[in-house]
Structures are given as C-alpha cells and as structure tokens.
Amino acid sequence: MNFFIKKLLIVIPTLYIAWTVVFVTLNIIPGDPVNLMLGGRPASDEVRENVRKNLGLDKPVFERYTSFLINATKGDLGKSYLTRQPVTTMIKENMMPTIELSIGGLIFGVFFGVFFGIFAGTKPNSMRDTFSMIIALCGISLPSFWIGMMLIYIFGTTLGWVPIVGEGFVSLILPSITVGLFFAGGMARLTRSSLVDVLNQDYIRTARSKGISKYRIVLRHSLRNAMIPPVTLLGIQFGLLITGAVITEEVFARPGLGQLLLQAILAKDIPLVQALVVYMTAVYIFLNLIVDFTYGIIDPRIRLERNRG
Amino acid sequence: MVEILNVSNLSTAFQSDYGSKQALKNISFKINEGEVLALVGESGSGKTVTSLSIMGLLPNNAYIQEGNINLIDKKNNQVNILKLTDDKHNLIRGNDISMVFQEPMTCLNPTMTIGDQIVEVILNHKKISKTKAVKEMIDLLGLVEIPDPTQRAREYPHQLSGGMRQRVMISIALACTPKLIIADEPTSALDVTIQAQLLQLLMKLKNSIVSKTSILFITHDLGIVRELADRVIVMYHGEIVEEGQVKEVFDNPKHSYTRNLIQSLPEFKLEERKLNKKDDNKPTKVDDNEIILKIENLFKEFPVEKGFFKESNETVKAVQNISLNVKKNEVLGLVGESGSGKSTLGKSIIKLLQPSRGQIYFNNENISEYSNKQMIKIRQKMQMIFQDPFASLNPRKNILDTLIEPILVHNLMKKNEAINYIKEIINDVGLPIESLRRFPHEFSGGQRQRIGIARALVLKPEFIVADEPVSALDVSIQAQVLNLLEKLKKTYNLTMIFISHDLSVIEFFCDKVAVMYLGHIVEIAPVSKLFNSPKHSYTRALLSAVPKVKGKDKEKILIKGDIPSPINPPSGCVFRTRCPNPGIDCKGGNIEMGLIEVEPGHWVDKCCVNCN
Ligand SMILES: Nc1ncnc2c1ncn2[C@@H]1O[C@H](COP(=O)(O)OP(=O)(O)O)[C@@H](O)[C@H]1O
Ligand code: SF4
Ligand SMILES: [Mg+2]
Fold it and tell me: What residue numbers bound the domain in which A41 lies?
C-alpha cells in the first residue's frame, strides 16, 4: 500500500474525531445560544422559537451533529450570530495576516532554534552551551505578551528602529520574533540534545577517522540525522504557533484570526468559534502530515521502507 | 627494517565522577613498514584506547598524560602525533593512518550512500576532480570484491549485509593508500564464514596493492593472530605484558597471563583431554536406550510483516523439517551461521515459540500441542540459558528474589527451605553467598552468566537449552563458565542442547553435533566424527573457516557471499548458491533434501552424499 494513501486514510478519521470534540465541547457550554444570539434583548417566545428554527436548534442533537460534520466537510459552517455574515467569508478576510505572522514566526523560530542548538550541541557542557540553553529557557518560559511588549518598548519606542504599527514586511519583524522566540526555545533545546546524541554515534567517529573538518562533520554528517526529533517537535508545536499568533496579534494590535477568535469568544459567537476551531484543527493535522512526509526526505531508511511497503 | 610508527611511554587516563582511571600504563611499541602487528588482550585491557590515542579520536573525558607517538608520514617527515593540532591531525587521519572499526552495523552514516562516503575521504586528501574520485571509488569497491559496484555505490548502509559494510569500511581505509591501517576487531561481530572471507581479502590486498602498508590488527582471537600476524603484542590491564614474533610467543609464552590465555582456549583443553587417557573429565555415560527428547518433522515459519493493510503470504522459513533425538545425559550441539535458525529451533523445542508443524516428544509425552498452561508443569523439567542473561534478569530484583520466585510459583518448597536450597545452588555456580543480596548490574558478564545458569537450575530440570551461553564472554571467562557447565552437567544429571556459532566451543563441550544451514540440519554426527571426517560441503567449509592456533595452515575452503534470505531459500539443496564445489546434479536445484545415515549415528543430507 502506498505510504501517502495510508497516511491520508489515517488523517480523515483523525479530523472527524477532532471535529466531534469541537462539537461536543461547544454544545456542553452552559447558556442558551438563543439568548446569546439575541444579545440579551428581551423577546417573545414566538421570536425565540423562530430563531431556534433558523439556527436548526430544534432538531435532535444527533441530527445536528451529522449535519455539522457534513457541512464542515463541505466547508460551510454557517453564519456568525453577530454579523450575520457567513463565517467562511470572515475567516477568509482575516486569514492572510495570520498566515504571514505564522510563517514569519516559523522562519525566525527555526532559524534561531537550529542556530543556538548547533552552537550549544557542538560543544556540550561548555560556557557557550550553558549560555545558549539559558536563552532557550527564557524563550520558553517568558510569556509571549511580555516579550512582545518588551520588544515594542526597546526597538519600537526607545530605539525607534522598527515601526510598531503599519503594514508591510517591516511591521512583521517584531511580531514574528515574539511568536518565534517561544518556538526557538524548544527547537534549540531539542536540536542540541539530538546533535549531542548524534555526535556520539559510531559513524561520526568513522567520519573523523577520515580526517574531515569539524564543520563538515556537523553539516554533512550530523545535522540531517539530528533534525528528526526537532522536525517532529515542529509538527507538534504548530498548535503553539497558532496560540502564539493569537496572543501576539492582540499585543501588537494586528488584525488576523487571533483577533477574530478572541472577539468571537468574548461575544460567545458560537458558529464563528466553531468554524475557527474546525479550520485550525484541519490546518494543524494537514501540517503534521507534511512533517510526516519530510521524514522520508531526511532519512533514506524511512523512505526505502515506504517504497517497499 | 623501516620503522613507521613509534609509541613510547604512552599513558592515557579517563576522567570520571569517581576520579581518574588509568587505561594505558606507560606502553611502548613500534610498527615496521609492511608488517602486520597483532594486539591481543581481553576486553577492557586497553586495545581500543591504544588505537584511539594514535588516531586522536579519544572521547572527551579521556586525556593523554604523557608519551610520544612518532609517525613517519608519506613525505618521509617524522611527526609527533600527540603534538598536532586537530586540523593538522586531520591531514594524517584517513591519509597516512586509517582505521576499520568493530561495529559494521553502526559505523557508516545511515543517511549517506556508501559511494559518497568513500568519495568523501578521497576528495578530502587528494587534489583530484569529483569525476575522477568517483571512478576511484568504483575501482575501490571492485578491489574489496563488492559485486556490481556501480549499483552498490548508490545504496545506503542498511541495504548491505554486515560483511559488505565491513568491505566498504576497508575500502575507505584503503582509499588513500595509507602507511598504517588500524583494524579494531574488524571481524568480531561477524560469522566465521564471513570473517574468513574478509581476512582473506585483507591479506590479498596486503600482499598486492598496499604491500608497504602496515596493519595494526586488534583482536581477542588468537587463531586470527596465528594466521595473519608477523608479530604480536599482548595487553593486560593497560600494560604490554608480552611482545614478540607470533610463533615464539605461541610456542613459548613468557608471561603467565599469555600462558593462561593460550591454555584456556577450547582447542587446548581438548588436546589436554585427549592426552589424558584415564580422563575422568568426561564420563558422561550416555544411556543408549533412553531417549529424552524426540523431534519429528518440526517446522517453524514466521509470517512476513508487510505493513498495515496488506496481509502477506510470504513466510520466513526459520526451521524446516527437522527431526532429531537427544538421549539421556547427552549434549547435542547446534552450530551454524547467524540466521541459520539455531535459536528458533531451541525456543520451539521448549515451546517458548509455538512450532508451526511437527511433533515434540519429551519423555515420550507429545508436548507439541500443549497450551501454555499445560506447559507450566513441563517447564519445571525444561529450562533455557540465554546469551545475554542481563537482558532477562529483572534489574530491580536482587538475586535471591529472582532465584526464589520460580520455586515459590511452582510451590516446590517452603520459603526458608528454598533459601537454603538457593544458597547451595549459588555455591555450586561458584558465586559467594553475599551475591544473593545484590542486584544484576553489580555483576560482571561472567558472573551474570553464572546467575543465568543458577536460575535455569533452581527447578532441578532434566533438560536445558543453552543458547550461546558463553559467546559474549572473554576467552578466559568462557573457559571458566564452560568448565562450570560441564561440572554441573554431571552433578545435576543434565541433558542439554547447546547452541553456539563457535565450533571450538562445540567441539569441547558436546557429544553430538547438528550443523544447521537456512533452517535445515545438513549433517548430524558424534563430535569426533564430525570434526575428523565431515561429509557435507557446508560442514567442511565451516570447519575450514575457523582460524586455529595449532595445526598446519591448510588451504581454506571459502564460502562465497552472504547467507540467502530465509524468505525465498534456494530450491533443492539450500546451500547450493554458496557451495564451493557443487555437484552437477545440485546446480539444477531439483534434488530433495533429507538426512540419511551413512555410518551409525552419522547422518548427512542425502544429496550431498550422492555428489561427493
Ligand atoms: N569512554 C570511556 N570512559 C571511561 N572509561 C573508559 C572509556 N572507554 C574505555 N574505558 C576504560 O579504558 C580501559 C580500556 O578499554 P578499551 O581500550 O576499550 O579495551 P579493549 O579495547 O581492550 O576492550 C577499560 O578499563 C575501560 O573501562
Ligand atoms: S548437495 Fe551439492 S550443492 Fe548442496 S552442499 Fe552438497 S555438493 Fe553443495
Ligand atoms: Mg575494543
């Protein structure tokens, strides 16, 4: 069986399970959706009943569940309670800034994470190792919003190097760093430990016995083998990237899905929240699929295994 | 004689949490141009540390305390290796001195093709174009006799067998025609047949294209030393205790350690025994009438895993149509290359694996269809000793708890009775009573094996399958454990199946031997018959592959290539693809296999009887 098809067949049930969880959690949240929808305005029973019908809430739970899944598959996730716009339109409108921010954060995080990981891992237990790992720990443990605010304060307000608001590439730098730092910390730590591990392997000793320079040993013989765990982490942390983006958008007052989600939650706009979560899970699962495929590029043993399987 | 490497007063130590520990104590030796110098000693004696000191590849926690290592490099300059910076040392590594390591499975980079790994060292030291380097690489692969080099060059290490990988390592070591090749136990992890191929290749190369290259050959196998080396150095606890021409040292060892080492070889033990006519060492009176174990047409096949959705109907044919008898108090040896099915047969017999087909009679009781529950009672009488006892001992239980558990489970004795009984056993296996309170990790390899033996004995079994019980141990320890087993065999009245890939151990320990190849028994005979007049081509080749300390150098019968896949074994005689001299009838592969008795007690596969 083709590896790709096999993976896809596993993805589909995963997606439905995730969506089921979304449906269940949003349905056990206390509060009558009709009340939310009416925004607290008084209304007669008749009006309520109409709204209920409109939203399809009069149907039995199971029916609502199946139609939710069908609609989710079609990409039709209803209308926002508040704006009455289709949620897909709202999501589309707010998508680009978040994608930009995520990619920026990703690039920044991977670059610095791998850099510090190599810097530390090639000389374990040295000063530079300790130094790098302290920085990485800071990246992980300091809250994004605090880092964001500090960056704004230092580079934006005090030094005036980069604009804090506005559009275009430059305005993306500080938010990307904010998102990426969190990412970078985990990447750095994992790259380091994985590299230390690889550098102790027998084949590295063989490479050294050939008289190859230490740079080549790291770049040609170690990195590829060492990158498997960090790439896995990448897959797992896409979720954090999204969370990071949500908070960062708030701190930098950037438009985007994060802002949208926050507003939707505050307004208890259930269809919008539901749609956002549905999309995010889909993206998350899809990105993990890509990560799975990249293993094969990194490690020929996995690739050949797949071709045979 | 030109001296190319001179090690003088070298001391190397390791820094650890408990302080520093000296691994090399003031050692001095030299290597002459073109000679093969063997370095022998048991594990931990400092052989590897010596080679890594020369290569400048010591681990971070090691440091050289004092000494000099002087090398005459290719440009005829004398350099003190220990005074070089890492960059300068890189000009020498792989170029003037190269190395072949012990672990063929892990010493090549899994993410690079083997071609790239060879080209790399060429480009690193020679100023030639990439295309020329690739051409040299293909030539090298041809030199080390890898079939189809252009194709193989594109493959990754895991696609090659251990023997092939070691050939690749040799080609890397040869690539720049170095002054010195250090080979650290290059064949220890391989089968004797593959070992013989590689050693022959190495000597062929040594005598042709790299005749001026010296080899420092590290090994614990004295037979190899005898066959290959000009001179030998013996190491013991980080010191050189003996040095000299091979013949001199073997015929007339000066140091007591060397003497012991030579005398503890099974080969010598055997000789001793033969000389000692009224030998009471081997009174195992085999009772001809009482057959304790009888196996008829036993098969064990494993389904091939083929992924998640697809069921495969291919099987690994691990054990094929095996029939044999073991008489009371007899020791039957099982020998063969790795992958020949020895362990699977052993485990199927005591039903740690459920056989696919066939009958097993134990004391005339047919146990082949017994369930695990029914086997509990039988297991008291049938036990197993494993190669790596550590893996099968619970690390969190002390030895007393480990040993007492089966007794209490089987409800054989009261607890305090059992404790006394275990004390007896632990004494019998040669361990102090205090050991009972200790945990597995506190013991050495040899001691752990004694614990493994004690555990097999607590239930007073009649029959034991010992799977490579001494293979992981050093020669001198091996001898001790074998002696112990022999003694226990008598005191406990045991019948055994003894599995080993080491023919000399088999010869020393067993009464009868079965030779296995690709799941089949191809020959079965009393020990002296099998070793003195082997009938099957495989047995002959196997016997000839073993490097011997004593005896004349006979022309080796080399087996070509690797053992084929047991998923699709050759038709007819399974050995025909590697047979050194197959008969005309064999080549077609349509003769059926099956044992016939050529002399009383000596059974040989019938097709081989016909063609020889
Ligand atoms: N990485 C290490 N850390 C601490 N001690 C070591 C290390 N490697 C080897 N040793 C010690 O150095 C001594 C010599 O070991 P080694 O050269 O590997 O022996 P051999 O190759 O003869 O089996 C042993 O006492 C061993 O325990
Ligand atoms: S039967 Fe023929 S092919 Fe098989 S081992 Fe004997 S001689 Fe070789
Ligand atoms: Mg060693």
Answer: 2-73
All residues at 6 or more sequence positions from B166 whose CB lies less than 8 Å from its CB, including other chains = B100, B104, B186, B187, B190, B198
B148-174 pLDDT, tens digit per residue, is 899 999 999 988 888 899 999 999 999
Per CATH, B3-263 and B287-381+459-525 having the same topology is answered yes
Query: Closest-lying ligand to the alpha carbon of B237?
Result: 1
Contact status, residue B352 vs residue B375, Cβ threshold 8 Å:
no
Provide CATH code, domain B287-381+459-525: 3.40.50.300
pTM, entire model: 0.78
Query: Quick one: A150 and A259 in the same domain?
Result: yes
Taking CA atoms, what residue in A is nearest to B98? A209
Rounded to a whole number of angstroms, the distance from the CA of B46 to the nearest CA of chain A is 18
Q: Give the integer Cα–Cα distance in Å for B424 and B518.
A: 42
Task: Please name the residue whose Cα sits nearest to atom 8 of ligand 1.
Answer: B49
Q: Is A266 in the same domain as A117?
A: yes
Q: Which residues are near ligand 3, the ion (C-beta closer than 5 Å)?
A: B 48
Collect all residues of chain A within an 8 Å Cβ-Cβ radius of residue B111: 224-225, 298-300
> In whole angstroms, how far apart are CA B428 and each of A209, B384, B398, B454, B488?
48, 18, 18, 8, 8
A43 shares its domain with A110 = no
Distance, CA of A55 to CA of B378 (rounded, Å): 71
Compute the radius of gyration of chain A from its Cα atoms: 24
Number of domains in chain A: 2
B231-236 and B214-219 strand pairing: unpaired
pLDDT at residue A63 greater than cutoff 80: yes
What pLDDT sits at residue A6? 73
Half-sphere exposure of B424 (CA within 13 A, CB side): 13
Over the stretch B485-530, which tens digit does the pLDDT of each residue have? 988 888 888 999 999 988 888 988 899 999 999 999 999 999 989 9
Contact between residue A213 and residue A168 where contact means Cβ atoms under 8 Å apart: no
Does residue A57 sit within a domain?
yes
Structure tokens, B112: 């690079």
- B232 burial (CB, 10 Å; 0-12 / 13-18 / 19+) is buried
Average pLDDT score over residue span B3-32: 91
Report whether B536 contacts B522 (CB < 8 A). yes
The pLDDT of residue B84: 92
Complex prediction ipTM: 0.77
Rg (CA), chain B: 26
